[in-house]
Amino acid sequence: MEDQLDRLDRNILSALARNGRQSMSELALKVGLSKTPVQARVKRLEKDGYIRGYSAIIDRERMGEGHVAFVQVKLSDTRSSALDAFNRSVQGVPEIEQCHMMAASFDYLLKVRTRDIAAYRRILGERISSLPHVAQTSTFVAMETVKDR
């Protein structure tokens, strides 16, 4: 499916990734097309799933969610049913901002966002450690976010 994207599509996606709120007229100027063809391309990119949605970038520090921890998770079972159970359960923990299955000495890497270290400790003990098939976790606390996009 990726082969269907031409240079203009890629430029549109790049511009929208930087600013999803710009008008079609602004976008058209940036990519060198008129408004109507840009609108048609954006609509097609949305329909084809290249654009999955639009969102606001929230200042998590101001929201009182400035503590970031990365958690390596090892599972006791890595058969498909166990992975599926873990994957489903992770969806129900709002503090888990990202979850990646890894090709490493551990199975998953989680990005967990909380108010502070005490809140993180509660989430780790009560929610993450009790996810299906979790055998071991290792936590790495971020001291500062240098780049986030």
TrEMBL record:
Domain HTH asnC-type: 5-66
Pfam families recorded: AsnC_trans_reg (PF01037), HTH_24 (PF13412)
Xref: InterPro entries: ArsR-like_HTH, AsnC-type_HTH_dom, Dimeric_a/b-barrel, Tscrpt_reg_AsnC-like, Tscrpt_reg_AsnC/Lrp_C, Tscrpt_reg_HTH_AsnC-type_CS, WH-like_DNA-bd_sf, WH_DNA-bd_sf
Signal sequence coordinates: none
Keywords: Activator, DNA-binding, Transcription, Transcription regulation
Superkingdom in the source lineage: Bacteria
PROSITE patterns hit by this protein: HTH_ASNC_1, HTH_ASNC_2
Keyword Iron among UniProt keywords: no
Keyword Transferase: no
Gene Ontology molecular functions: sequence-specific DNA binding
Entry GO CC: cytosol
One record GO biological process: response to amino acid
PANTHER family: LEUCINE-RESPONSIVE REGULATORY PROTEIN
Protein name per Swiss-Prot or TrEMBL: HTH asnC-type domain-containing protein
Organism encoding this protein: Mesorhizobium hungaricum
